[in-house]
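Changelog-adjacent note: as of this version, every example in the card shows the full chain rather than a window. The one below runs 173 residues end to end.
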Amino acid sequence: MKQIPFITLILLLAPWQAFAQTSRPTIAVTTDIEDGKKMVHTLVTLNGKPIENVNLQYFVQRTFGTLPIGQDTTLDDGTSAVAFPTDLPGAPDGKLHLIVRITAPPQYSSISLSAAFPADVQPAPADAFPRALWAPNAPLALMLSIFVLLAGVWLSYLFVVSRILAIRSAGQQ
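Full-length structure tokens:
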């Protein structure tokens, strides 16, 4: 019978949770007005206790990707703050979708949070019929240029027909 090394026996009997990291930090995001400016406040905790010196990056979800709006490091109470983008229009639902990612320390760098807040600038309503030539409300300049071109062609036809009739009447005299 093959003997099992002593360390293997200890590892098999010991609970694995003691060796693995079982908790992940949580991120809480709120908005508030501070000194007349709208701010995004973030609290990072691990097992209910604040974590300090965590680097956070803030993004806003846009149509074709994410737009970085700032980065900050948490203080000793686990909080950080960046300015809320008041000049960005919201998504079609009227909200700005904010993403907060932890960039350091490396063991927490895979953690992020997404939250939606009402945007200060509402998006323009989508026009059911854009001003295109085939739409009910075609652009006036485009319609005018087409009418001028068609009128020029038909006036040329009328001029040619009038010249043919003038030649015919001159020939009969």
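Structural remarks: Residues 6-118 form a domain with the Immunoglobulin-like fold (CATH 2.60.40.1930).
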